[in-house]
Amino acid sequence: MERIVLASNNKGKLAELQAMFAPLGVTLVPQGELGVPEAEEPHRTFVENALAKARNAAQHSGLPAIADDAGLCVDAFNGLPGVDTAFYATQFGYPKGDDNNVKALLEQMRDVRDRRAALVSTLVAVRVPLDPEPLIAVGRAPGLIAWEPMGEHGFGFDPVMYIPDFGKTFAQLEPAVKNANSHRGKAARQMVELIRANWLGP
């Protein structure tokens, strides 16, 4: 197994995951390079959407595939926005985008005292489209929603995701430190071990 198709065309995500998968000696190929169309994501859970994306990429490419679905889960909102994280701002009349998502979240939480939240990343890998044993890795980065954005690094909700262990938001941390402690970093490290144990070993 030399190549795995990544069910994403997000350059930041690709670079982050490629670095973490390097020790396996496999190359992650973005699905766009192989002409794979975007998958439908009709489900309400990260794992179901990631599985749908991985199956779609494997189906169209003939390669093993890996996909992730990620988002912000706010305790005070019963885990929402969850799978709708990317479109959060549009629910409140703003155009889609990271800055507007942060703006909308801070407005909705203006009078909320319970600031607990977690960024969650679910990675799913399949050998073939109907693989009966998909590999599933979940990474969580729990923290608190800050009262205002802080920091210059990262993207998404990083400027308002305050991590008590560091006393900083993700956007205030150096990228290498953030990646080591992020939801996607945790999930990717788990997935590398799962692939090593289940697909490449013993």
In words, what does this structure look like?
Strands 2-1-3-4-5-6-7 form a 7-stranded mixed beta sheet. It has one domain: Maf protein (Alpha-Beta Complex). It has helices spanning 11-21, 46-61, 98-108, 175-181, 183-200, and strands spanning 3-6, 27-30, 65-74, 116-126, 135-145, 161-163, 168-169. It is globular, with a radius of gyration of 17 Å. Strand 6 (161-163) and strand 7 form a beta hairpin. The two termini are 14 Å apart. 31% of the residues lie in helices and 22% in strands. The chain contains 5 helices and 7 strands. By secondary structure, it is α/β, with parallel strands linked by helices. The mean pLDDT is 94. This is dITP/XTP pyrophosphatase. It catalyses: XTP + H2O = XMP + diphosphate + H(+); ITP + H2O = IMP + diphosphate + H(+); dITP + H2O = dIMP + diphosphate + H(+). Keywords: Hydrolase, Magnesium, Metal-binding, Nucleotide metabolism, Nucleotide-binding. Its EC number is 3.6.1.66. GO terms for molecular function: dITP diphosphatase activity; ITP diphosphatase activity; metal ion binding; nucleotide binding; ribonucleoside triphosphate phosphatase activity; XTP diphosphatase activity.
